[in-house]
């Protein structure tokens, strides 16, 4: 994420292409760094926030 300069990544289901969760810098800091775990041994499902709240592209964010 640092190398690509992004602060969040969507986790997409391979079967249906729908978002299953989101991994943010905050998720990483709270679920990996603080607990002193190795991120190489953790699954995305253990780190991501789920379910993601979504809206249609033509919807107002208000």
Distinctive features:
62 residues, alpha+beta, 2 helices, 21% helix, 18% strand
Detailed description of the structure:
Helix content is 21%, strand content 18%. The chain is of the alpha+beta class. The protein has a domain at 8-47. It has a two-stranded antiparallel sheet. β1 and β2 form a beta hairpin. The longest helix is centred in the middle third of the chain and has 9 residues, at 25-33. The radius of gyration is 13 Å and the shape is globular. The mean pLDDT is 90.
SSE sequence, one letter per element: EEHH
Instruction: Give the integer mean of the pLDDT values.
Output: 90
Strand line-up of the largest beta sheet: 1-2
pLDDT under 50 segments (min length 5)?
Answer: none
In short:
The chain is α+β, with helices and mostly antiparallel strands. The protein contains 2 helices and 2 strands.
How is this fold's topology laid out?
Blueprint: E1 8-12, E2 19-24, H1 25-33, H2 44-47
């Amino acid at each position: 994420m640092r190398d690509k300069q992004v602060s969040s990544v969507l986790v997409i289901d391979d079967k249906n292409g729908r978002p299953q969760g989101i991994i943010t810098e905050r998720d990483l800091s709270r679920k990996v760094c603080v607990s002193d775990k190795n991120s190489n041994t953790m699954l995305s499902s253990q780190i991501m926030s789920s379910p993601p709240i979504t809206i249609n592209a033509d919807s107002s964010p208000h």
